[in-house]
Fold this sequence. Notes:
The protein is an alpha+beta fold.
Amino acid sequence: MSERLAFRMNLFPGHAAEYEKRHDEIFPELADALKQAGVSDYTIWHDPESNHLFGILTRTDDHAMGALPDTEIMKRWWAHMADIMETDENNVPTQIPLKQVFRLP
């Protein structure tokens, strides 16, 4: 089985193009780490009116996402992104979980 997660992040105004550019050039090691942790079908959407980013991903039931924050590649990516989006003191992007309210059966 797998589950889908949705969450919101906050992009600083005027940084949409840079955010997209950095994701076009995602560190290959990070993409590999996400896949190895059980993540698939990961997309991020931008709302230019609010500067909110909406992430949706699928992960396996036996995922290892909990270990990702401790990896060097994840810390390096977060530091790389911290100047253009809202983060905490450790550069972890501020994430607000979203509740699924509908899915077409």
